[in-house]
Specification:
This protein is mainly β and 190 residues long. The chain is built from one helix and ten strands; from the N terminus they run ββββββββββα. 12% of the residues lie in helices and 29% in strands. The strands form three sheets. Strands 1, 2, 4, 5, 9 and 10 form a six-stranded antiparallel β-sheet that branches. Strands 3-8 form a two-stranded parallel ribbon. It has a two-stranded antiparallel sheet with strand order 6-7.
């Protein structure tokens, strides 16, 4: 698998862009954007864990740490197809991974390439399936330890939750109420 088929493809008439956004940085106050991953085993002789444990091992020279995790992201909407949002387009939404991030790959094949939004970049690199590959391995001989990138398997159960952001008018009213409370408190203490 080469990681293609995601995002709008102008040559694919069945491809329709529905929602697009920019991932916001981690917010310590709300914990939005927090992702965790716990390694539970390291691929090392004498018992290496093959990265590809689904069907035929297409990456026989790549092993992997074993582990699970989960996470959430907050995304600022940059485009939404209004035909798919009859209740209105959310300006900010949370993308929540409901279950897990896993390695090694047991339910699908690892990706040779991944789409970073600007195009395909190498992930696990050359595999044994002809014609479905990027030329470079960027995860190293031991995924999760030896490369500049990690390749994780995620399940497909995610949720999009609109996040309510106070409107400027509401924030101004709250500010006025706090100012009035401050004046009232000052008069009582005099």
């Amino acid at each position: 698998m080469n990681g293609t088929g995601f995002g709008p493809d102008p040559t694919d008439l069945d491809s329709i862009l529905i929602l697009e956004g920019t991932i916001l940085p981690f917010n310590a106050a709300t914990q939005q954007g927090l992702t965790n991953f716990t390694a539970s085993g390291v691929a090392a002789p004498p018992n290496p864990n093959a990265l590809d444990q689904f069907g035929v091992n297409q990456y026989p020279n790549i092993t992997s740490v074993t582990g699970t995790g989960c996470g959430s992201l907050t995304v600022l909407t940059t485009f939404a197809n209004a035909a798919y949002f009859p209740q209105g387009v959310p300006s900010v939404f949370a993308l929540i991974f409901d279950t897990q991030l896993n390695i090694p790959f047991t339910q699908t094949n690892p990706a040779s390439c991944v789409n970073n939004g600007s195009g395909l970049i190498s992930a696990a690199g050359p595999n044994t399936a002809a014609g479905l590959e990027c030329p470079t391995n960027t995860i190293g001989a031991i995924n999760g330890i030896s490369g500049p990138n990690d390749l994780l398997m995620t399940d497909s159960s995610t949720s999009f939750l609109p996040i309510t952001v106070p409107e400027p008018g509401s924030l101004a009213l709250v500010g006025l109420a706090l100012a009035a409370l401050g004046v009232t408190y000052r008069r009582r203490s005099v």
